[in-house]
Amino acid sequence: MKLSDGEIDFPITRVDPLFEDLPMSRASLTSPTAWMVMTLRRIAQSARQYDVMVRPLHVPAPMTLLMADDAPRHLKVASEAEGCCPQEFVLEFQDACLAATENGALDRMEDFRRQGFRIGIDARRSSGTPFGARVRTAVERMRVSAEELLINEAIQQRAEIVSSLGGAVILDRAHWKQADLLVSYGATHSLKMIADA
């Protein structure tokens, strides 16, 4: 929901298990592209079944998806098969996948953008990505922990950049009493708001 007014804005989807969490026997039989196509279709079908009209839908994307050259095309076909546009989905990659090889990973992320998908970064576990001009223009959504946003200057700078460029900075488990302070650091949305007594 929006921190500014409490309005429900867009849904964050939860996928269990994530591709990286699959047992080795299942992960070796399933390509990241096949897993992602199945996941995207399942999310689109659930949104239709439960009349979730708010967009974009966030979809957690495995790091290994960036190694599959055919993934952007397959995902576009899958989204269109479900009657959706690629723009209705934010593919959310872990920050760690960009930290070591910013340019190579960004090239592959831009392939998804060229197919129409939006890109998000989940920086709740790590926040080591070099935040150069290419990352700034590619990323429309960023997820961070509320605690890290309050104490980490690098994350504060990134949050301000993303929100000033019109993107969303999404927090997990923020306290209502800190909402104004978090907004001043660039946060725009939160999941699971904590009521303060």
Could you explain how this protein is built, in words?
Helix 2 (32-49) runs parallel beside helix 3 (71-81). The chain has one domain (19-191): EAL domain (TIM Barrel, Alpha-Beta Barrel), CATH 3.20.20.450. 37% of the residues are buried. 42% of the residues lie in helices and 15% in strands. The chain is an alpha/beta fold and 197 residues long. The radius of gyration is 17 Å and the shape is globular. Strands 1-2-3-4-5-6 form a 6-stranded parallel sheet.
Concise summary:
By secondary structure, this protein is of the alpha/beta class. It is built from nine helices and six strands; from the N terminus they run ααβαβααβαβααβαβ.
Features of the shown structure:
single chain, 197 residues, alpha/beta, TIM Barrel, six-stranded parallel β-sheet, 9 helices, globular
Secondary-structure-based class equals alpha/beta
Q: How many domains would you count in the coordinates?
A: 1
Figure out the total of helices.
9
The first-level CATH class is given as Alpha Beta
Helicity level: 40-55%
Separation of termini?
Answer: 20 Å
List SSEs in N-to-C order: HHEHEHHEHEHHEHE
What share of residues are in beta strands?
15-25%
CATH fold descriptor:
TIM Barrel
Structural Rg: 17 Å
| SS elements, strand count | 6
The low-confidence runs, each spanning 5 or more residues with pLDDT under 50, are none
So what's the overall shape? globular
| Residue-averaged pLDDT | 84
Numbering strands along the chain, what is their spatial order in the largest sheet? 1-2-3-4-5-6
